[in-house]
Amino acid sequence: MSENKTVRLIITRQDRPDSAPYEEEFVIPYRPNMNVISALMEIRRNPVNAKGEKTTPVAWEMNCLEEVCGACSMVINGKPRQACAALIDKLEQPIRLEPMRTFPVIRDLVIDRSRMFDALKRVKAWIPIDGTYDLGPGPRMPERKRQWAYELSKCMTCGVCLEACPNVNSKSNFIGPAPLSQVRLFNAHPTGAMHKAERLRAIMGDGGLANCGNSQNCVQSCPKGIPLTTSIAALNRETTIQMFRDFFGSDEV
């Protein structure tokens, strides 16, 4: 039965970063259990559009194929999500694929996520250590704190929350929900807490917490269900406390 079925895709393409986008339609044979990635791989195998014209293979990114790496983020039928987790049988046709426009487009569905990675550098989203030698076991976290910190650690820097956020755009330098949540994660770590004040100061200025419009789009779109708005609310309280500490010259964390 599936031999006669087809899948229609309308893909927004762009040949170069400075060229105009255009749409190209493809019709491919249907197979059971297909996802968007397997549909794109079929187009790559035989790059012929719906008009029967030979064309260039569609460019996109992928890696893990199990919703862990975040590389295959794109807008599917108007919603930013992972292509590997988007099953053809659950999508309305024609399936429309577009790049996430929050980020500059390099080619077709490939985007430049530098904006997000620069924001992670700004908030020092890592645990600094002194040297590469063995420091021994680190301090233990209370189980209750470890549980919610683990939920924040699920972030795969896919960029979906930034795409869904109306405050992250070309006219704003808002760093977005994902980097903000990482501030809370690394400040909760016993070793990372040494740089807590530095991270909080990084989000107190322009492009930080004040630019959040509380639209709630981020938490609804996150493929990992990370409580992003809960983190933002907690950071609002922590930055207020840090502001008073800075004002009165206190160095306490």
Automatic annotation (TrEMBL):
<dbReference type="Pfam" id="PF13085">
    <property type="entry name" value="Fer2_3"/>
</dbReference>
<dbReference type="Pfam" id="PF13183">
    <property type="entry name" value="Fer4_8"/>
</dbReference>
<dbReference type="GO" id="GO:0008177">
    <property type="term" value="F:succinate dehydrogenase (quinone) activity"/>
</dbReference>
<keyword id="KW-0001">2Fe-2S</keyword>
<keyword id="KW-0003">3Fe-4S</keyword>
<dbReference type="InterPro" id="IPR036010">
    <property type="entry name" value="2Fe-2S_ferredoxin-like_sf"/>
</dbReference>
<dbReference type="InterPro" id="IPR012675">
    <property type="entry name" value="Beta-grasp_dom_sf"/>
</dbReference>
<keyword id="KW-0816">Tricarboxylic acid cycle</keyword>
<comment type="similarity">
    <text>Belongs to the succinate dehydrogenase/fumarate reductase iron-sulfur protein family.</text>
</comment>
<keyword id="KW-0408">Iron</keyword>
<dbReference type="GO" id="GO:0046872">
    <property type="term" value="F:metal ion binding"/>
</dbReference>
<dbReference type="GO" id="GO:0006099">
    <property type="term" value="P:tricarboxylic acid cycle"/>
</dbReference>
<dbReference type="GO" id="GO:0022904">
    <property type="term" value="P:respiratory electron transport chain"/>
</dbReference>
<protein>
    <recommendedName>
        <fullName>succinate dehydrogenase</fullName>
        <ecNumber>1.3.5.1</ecNumber>
    </recommendedName>
</protein>
<keyword id="KW-0411">Iron-sulfur</keyword>
<keyword id="KW-0004">4Fe-4S</keyword>
<dbReference type="GO" id="GO:0051537">
    <property type="term" value="F:2 iron, 2 sulfur cluster binding"/>
</dbReference>
<keyword id="KW-0560">Oxidoreductase</keyword>
<dbReference type="GO" id="GO:0051538">
    <property type="term" value="F:3 iron, 4 sulfur cluster binding"/>
</dbReference>
<dbReference type="GO" id="GO:0051539">
    <property type="term" value="F:4 iron, 4 sulfur cluster binding"/>
</dbReference>
<dbReference type="InterPro" id="IPR050573">
    <property type="entry name" value="SDH/FRD_Iron-Sulfur"/>
</dbReference>
<dbReference type="InterPro" id="IPR009051">
    <property type="entry name" value="Helical_ferredxn"/>
</dbReference>
<dbReference type="InterPro" id="IPR025192">
    <property type="entry name" value="Succ_DH/fum_Rdtase_N"/>
</dbReference>
<keyword id="KW-0479">Metal-binding</keyword>
<dbReference type="InterPro" id="IPR017900">
    <property type="entry name" value="4Fe4S_Fe_S_CS"/>
</dbReference>
<dbReference type="GO" id="GO:0009055">
    <property type="term" value="F:electron transfer activity"/>
</dbReference>
<dbReference type="InterPro" id="IPR017896">
    <property type="entry name" value="4Fe4S_Fe-S-bd"/>
</dbReference>
<feature type="domain" description="4Fe-4S ferredoxin-type">
    <location>
        <begin position="146"/>
        <end position="174"/>
    </location>
</feature>
<dbReference type="InterPro" id="IPR004489">
    <property type="entry name" value="Succ_DH/fum_Rdtase_Fe-S"/>
</dbReference>
